[in-house]
Design a protein that fits this description.
single chain; alpha/beta; TIM Barrel; seven-stranded parallel β-sheet; four-stranded antiparallel β-sheet; 13 helices; 11 strands; 44% helix
Length: 361
């Protein structure tokens, strides 16, 4: 197939393991990256997504907080501030750079506190949790530009972690199965209620790109047995919202999640992103292993891109894209997000390589 296709057509073909004119592409960036690129030659009014023909546009992010939008500063210095958020979490943020906030404390710690938090969560109207007008604008933009329009939101483990922290949530999962199930089921219920609200408001998606970091660089944060008993039912429930409408699902998790990859497929995931190379994820091994059961998105090593060494970057792309694109089933993305240390000229070179090695012509 050599004719020019829309991004929507490319993504749908890739997710159905069919070849298009080229591989679809999308990208994520650290907040500092684009402003630095404007200093390195990117035009002030130029849109990177338009320049490089990204094929995916997302919208509809849902706030899962008991008090959506609540933020109270607890402590502040010249470099950082500690804030209490709508989940009851106290987090420390750097003022002048982005990054994962430091977990200071979580105020929801007991079952009774959870019940009060849960009641407050479920009492909030769905419209308070999502910007419907923004989602509609993004939908019209995607349609105008021919892009695949997806719901971008989070899943139950990620949202529960924001209430209890990784450690607190792990204790609950180990010590109180019924409570853990209730937590994950509640988070999935809330997401589906807001998705219903988006649909009733006229928003129509082509699929989902669901975020939930459930692994570190050697394994998931929990055993496969624990995943199946506690989290998988909530994943199935949330993913089923899209499956009932015949829509595919991309699932984002950092880390090495191979131990539960088959379970995620059973839950309804169609495509996995971003496939962190430094966490031992390699689509050259995964794609032959899973065949047409799964599609893949990412795996271009950001640590290689950060060297700004063109020979090393071409070697990375040349080693992976020909395998990734064969027979469809692949969408280009870095294996995380593009950091500000990747130079603007380097990224332009990378996109030239994606054009060259990602073409089906």
């Amino acid at each position: 197939m050599t004719e020019q296709l829309t991004g929507r057509e490319r993504v749908n073909l890739a997710l159905n393991h069919q070849e298009a004119d080229r591989i679809p592409r999308a990208e994520s960036f650290w907040p500092e990256t684009i402003p630095i690129w404007h200093q390195q030659g990117l035009g002030p009014n130029e849109d990177v997504a338009d320049l490089f023909g990204y094929d995916i546009l997302g919208a509809g992010w849902i706030s899962h907080e008991a008090r959506p939008g609540f933020l109270q500063t607890i402590e502040e210095t010249a470099d950082w501030w500690s804030r209490l958020d709508g989940n009851g979490a106290i987090l420390r943020y750097w003022k002048h750079k982005s990054g994962t906030p430091e977990h200071v404390d979580f105020t929801v710690k007991t079952r009774d506190q959870w019940e009060a938090h849960k009641a407050q969560m479920l009492a909030q109207p769905p419209g308070s949790r999502v910007d419907v007008l923004s989602a509609l604008r993004r939908m019209y933009e995607a349609q105008a530009k021919g892009r695949w329009f997806c719901w971008t939101g989070v899943e139950a483990y990620e949202t529960a972690k924001d209430v209890f922290g990784h450690l607190g949530l792990s204790y609950i999962m180990a010590d109180d199965v019924a409570w853990a199930k209730d937590i994950f089921d509640t988070e999935a219920e809330l997401a589906c209620a807001v998705l219903d609200h988006l649909e009733q408001s006229g928003v129509r998606f082509d699929g989902a790109w669901i975020y939930g970091d459930i692994a570190f660089n050697h394994a998931p944060f929990f055993s496969p047995k624990m995943y199946r008993a506690l989290i998988k039912p909530a994943h199935i429930r949330q993913i089923a919202w899209f499956k009932a409408r015949g829509l595919p699902v991309i699932y984002h998790t950092d880390g090495d999640f191979r131990l539960i990859l088959p379970d995620l497929l059973e839950a309804g995931v169609d495509c996995f992103q971003p496939l962190e190379a430094k966490a031992h994820m390699d689509l050259r091994e995964l794609k032959p292993q899973y065949g047409a059961r799964a599609s893949w998105m990412g795996n271009i090593d950001v640590t290689v891109l950060l060297t700004n060494d063109r020979a090393r970057i071409e070697a990375e792309v040349a080693a992976k894209l020909p395998v990734a694109k064969a027979g469809g089933g692949y969408i280009y993305h870095s294996d995380h997000s593009i950091a500000p240390g990747v130079h603007w000229e380097t990224y332009q070179f990378l996109m030239e390589l994606v054009d060259r090695y990602g073409s089906y012509a």
